[in-house]
Design goal:
Elements (H helix, E strand, L loop, with lengths): L7 H13 L15 E5 L3 E6 L5 E7 L2 E9 L3 E6 L2 E7 L12 E6 L3 H4 L1 E7 L5 E7 L13 E6 L11 E3 L5 E5 L21 E5 L9 E5 L6 E5 L4 E6 L5 E8 L7 E2 L5 E2 L2 E2 L16 E4 L6 E2 L15 E6 L4 E7 L5 E10 L3 E6 L5 E5 L3 E6 L7
The structure holds calcium ion (CA).
Length: 382
Amino acid sequence: MELLSAAPSLVVALALAVIAGCGTQSSAQPPAASPEPAPAHHFDVERIATGLDRPTFVGAAPGDPEALWVLEQAGRVVRIVGEERTLALDLGDRVRTGTEQGLLGLAFDPAFATNRRLFLHWSDPAGDTRVAEFRARADGRSIEPDPVRELLFVDQPEENHNGGQLAFGPDGRLYLGLGDGGGAFDPERRAQDPASLLGKVVAVDVDAEVPRWEVVLTGLRNPWRFSFDPALAEVWVADVGQDRVEEVNRVRLEVDEAPKNLGWSAYEGRQRLVGHEVVGPGELVFPVATYSHDEGCSVTGGFVYGGASLPDLVRRYVYGDFCAGTLWSLSGTPEGGAVDVRREEAKVPQLSHIGEDGDGEVVFASAAGSIYRAVPPAPPQS
Ligand SMILES: [Ca+2]
C-alpha cells in the first residue's frame, strides 16, 4: 500500500504480488517442466462483468447454474446473473482489507441446493484468519448476515501469506489453504512445524459433532489457490514463491498416510534453501511445473478443465500469474507428472482466481475489477 505513488504498471504488479504474497530474494532454477515460448491458442477471453471492487473469487453454486458468485476483497459477496447483480452479503465491517487480507475464499456445500449452506474465509479486523458457516436465504440470492457458527480462528503473525482457498474435497471434507504466517523465508519455520496450521492445507469434517481441523499437506509458503481433480483423487496446489520460483504441485490424496510435504521453506521449487530443514515423515513432493520470476511473480492456481466448449483444453490444468496476467495450461501424465506446458495467447490482468461456472466452463477474476470467461478461440486471421 505504500506503493501507491509508484508508476501505474508497477502498482499493478505490486498490488498483485500483494494478494498472494511474493517475496524479494533467492536461488536458482530447476529441471521441472517450464513454459515453452510459442503460445497456444486453446481459448480467448471475453470480459463479462466490470466495475467490481478487487474480486478475489468467481464460481458457481450447486443448483444455481445461471449465476456467478463473486467475492470482493473488502468483504462483499455478489451474485451475478447476466446484467443483474445482487449484493448477497456485506461483511465489510468484519473484514480487514490489506494487500493480502480481506475476503479470500468461498466454498458452497456440495448439497447447497437443498441445505443452503456455504463457508467463507476472511481476515478479521485484527488481521487474523476466520472461517465460518453461513446460510443462504430461501430465495437463494442472498445470505443471512450472521454466521451459523465459526469453524476456525487462526492467529496471524504478519499481514502477508494468509492463504485463501476454501473447497470441498472428494472425501466430503472442507479444505483450506493457509500460508506460512508471513515475513520472508518463513522466519519461524511454521510451514515445517507439525504443531502449526500455518503453511499447510488443512481439512475438517463439517458434519462432525466437534469439527477438528487436520493437516493434510505441509511445507507450503502461500497456497493461494488449489483445486481437486476428483476423478483421480488428486489435489493441484499452486504455491506462491519467494523470490525466484512459482510452482504447481500435483498431489495424490492418501488420507491414511502422513501429510505429504511440499518442501517450503527447505525448498523453493526444487532449490534448496540453506539453513531450512524438512521436518516429519511425510513424502517430499516436488512441483510438476514451475516458472521463474522472469515470467511473473505470483502464481494463481486453476483447475483441470472438464467442460464442453473448449475441446482442446479437456483434461488440461489451467493456471496463471497475477502480476504478468499470463495463462498456461498443461497435461497430467498417468505417472503423476506434467507435460506439454503451454503458454496461452490469452491474458487476464491481475489474475486473482480461476473458477468454473455452472457448466464447468472457465471463468477468471481480475483484481482490476472484472470477470472474464474463456471462449472458443477465434479462427486465425488469414
Ligand atoms: Ca514446494
